Amino acid sequence: MNPEETWFLQNPHDALFRAAFADPVRAGELLRSALPAALVAAIDWTTLRAVDPAFVDPELGEHHADLLFEARAGRRRVLIRLLYEHKATFERFLLLQVLRYHLRVWERFRAEQPEAELLPAIVSVVLYHGQRPWQGPTDLRGLLDLEGLPAPFTALQPQFHVVLDDLAATDAEGLHRRRLSVGTLLPLLHLQQVWRHRRIAELIASWRRLYRKLQVQSGTRQLYRQLVTYVVAVRNEDHMTLRDAYAKVGKPAEETMMSCLQRIHQAALRVGERSGHERGLEEGLQKGLQKGLRQGMQRGQIDLLCELLQHRFGELGKTTLRRLERASAAELLQWSRAVLTAQSLADVFGD
User: In three state form, how does the secondary structure of the chain look?
Assistant: First the structure.
């Protein structure tokens, strides 16, 4: 398994977003469905091209969910930022994160073109996906405490606005009504539906026609594979259930799903071919086993699970540590299995 595939499994939501919309053609289609009509009319979409993330910040690198594009609006160059936010809970101050990115864009532009007297205009589109529809402001002034202040105070405050495309505020039918191409629609449906739908087999079956349509299009083989991989990464589902579901879609879908599982299993068995994440899991296993030999099997199970949890989700809080200390051997075994595919601590413990 190469680093790209490993990153995809660790960050399935961001990775599918990037796999689908790093392509300017699909990104342009998504942007045209989200932006106000006046903006859509003003942009020359034939000039839309991707901008290297290193233009903004060398640390953004290749594996980043924020995408930056450049286009022409009249005689002017404009930058369009497409950001995907998958949040389990509402993040009120997301606008500050977006604003910081704008500043980095402009600072980098000044460094690259010090003779320029004006900065390029930037439009930010946030594709938001939380458990509930967006509840906060989309304008920076909505975060400022201006109530009761005289108008001159308000006039002096900066204005900053983002365009919000809220997947949680619509449903599958709402996405279908946008009349998007299958290469744009199917990734959006996956991002919106897969992680929350209770019956994944029924969901996959309902997309049978879309899968088959995408399959015959040229240049979509990689996207097709990553859509299937996304389902495997997000859903802790019985593999036979997934296999049967994709078998109903067609032989290519079933083979893609089985190939994905095979790559995961091979990577877990071949230490020499493991990615940094998988090597970390191996080191955690070794440390846990060594401690288990010294301190006893129960102690070793706890230490092993601590190593795995810390590697996946960072430093553990006191509540989590106490929970591990008080757990039974059966619970430790159950959590150790869950940590390999869980997306959060809550998933591990079944909370």
Answer: CCHHHHHHHHCHHHHHHHHHHCCHHHHHHHHHHHCCHHHHHHCEEEEEEECCHHHCCCCCCCCCCCEEEEEEECCEEEEEEEEEEEECCCCCCHHHHHHHHHHHHHHHHHHHCCCCCCCCEEEEEEEEEECCCCCCCCEHHHHCCCCCCCHHHHHCCCCCECEEEEHHHCCHHHHHCCCCCHHHHHHHHHHHHCCCCCCHHHHHHHCHHHHHHHHCCCCCHHHHHHHHHHHHHHCCCCHHHHHHHHHHHCHHHHHHHHHHHHHHHHHHHCHHHCCHHHHHHHHHHHHHHHHHHHHCHHHHHHHHHHHHHHHHHCCCCHHHHHHHHCCCHHHHHHHHHHCCCCCCHHHHHCC
Which pLDDT score, from 0 to 100, does residue 285 have?
47
Contact 274, 12 (CB under 8 A): no
Question: pLDDT by residue (tens digit) across 106-165?
Answer: 998 899 899 999 999 999 999 988 878 888 889 999 999 999 999 999 999 988 999 999
Question: For the chain, what are the domain ranges?
Answer: 3-144+151-178, 194-269, 285-349
